[in-house]
Amino acid sequence: MTSAPGSTDTPDDRGAEDEDDQAESTATVLVAGAANLAIAVLKLVAGVLTGSAAMLAEAVHSLADTVTEGLLLTALRRSTKPADRTHPLGYGKERFFWALIAAVSIFVSGAVFAIYEGVRTILGGEAEQTYVWVAYVVLVISFALEGASWLRALKQVRAEATAEHRGLAAYLRGSDDPTVKTVFYEDSAALVGLVLALAGIALHQVSGSAVFDGLASLLIGVLLAGVAYLLGRTNKALLVGRQADPRLVHAVRELLDAAPEVDAVVDLITQVMGTDMVLVCARIDLADGLTASEVENACLRLDRELQEAFAEVDEVFLEPVPRHDPELRAKVLARYGELPVGRALG
């Protein structure tokens, strides 16, 4: 959540908010995990009884989602470990790593099996359905359970998007919290998968052709592969090191520019180090005539003001530099291009 400059939130207030967000995310993941485990068992039973490829694909889909929730719980627990000697900037990126592994698990165990089952069924010829009513009952129950999990995830995502003054789509694209995003995407894919499975089973029953069942399984696999790719791409960007929200970058720059001791912000680098954890590195040209003591006090004050104004700012490094140094200017231009530094940073 991006705080406005001049926020009156104290560190204790923000710490309580972070704990509430952590508890909310954990509860969302636990609800999704419990629902997926129950659904996986039901779908497996239905798949074995009916012989439906779509139901078996959905069973593996739910099992993959259950494994994913376990990985996300690991991410939530490990990412909150405090900084230490070996990890001086903390363990925030653990959340991105485990979320990436979760995306891989969705693809490997869910998408690959569903695509295989779909192709096998399509090429295998006709197959008689049995106990079709079991599949319909399980699909209805599964839709209810998945729907409840999806509504909880949607509620949290909407609340977080509103807190950041963003639309839902913009929040999902830019969020640095992969846990709730993963649950939301998973549950959305699960609901679509259930509709595909229902259509495949119903068309198989009406036409007597197993091709429809296989096609449904194939589409479920493609759906899961798409979700896995989307989540994998997001977490890769966060692991590699992504700039903070541009709105935060602009606000940090404005706060530094407004300081009486600062003549110019020469360079500003931000990086997301974890969920709601941003590293700020700024090269600033200070006013001529400041004593060493005044420079030290100015840097300490700006560090404190940045962390008080912006809840996400976790570490601040300030480096006094001359703005016209040719080597430094070349380095900044190499990173941002020929645009003025102030525009490039946005």
Automatic annotation (TrEMBL):
Pfam (any one): Cation_efflux
Domain of life, source organism: Bacteria
Main location: membrane
Keywords: Membrane, Transmembrane, Transmembrane helix, Transport
Membrane spanning stretches: 96-116, 131-151, 183-203, 215-232
Family matches, as InterPro entries: Cation_efflux, Cation_efflux_CTD_sf, Cation_efflux_TM, Cation_efflux_TMD_sf, SLC30A9
Region (Disordered): 1-25
Membrane topology: Multi-pass membrane protein
Localisation per UniProt entry: Membrane
Ranges of residues in domain Cation efflux protein transmembrane: 29-239
Protein name: Cation diffusion facilitator family transporter
Classification lineage: Bacteria, Bacillati, Actinomycetota, Actinomycetes, Mycobacteriales
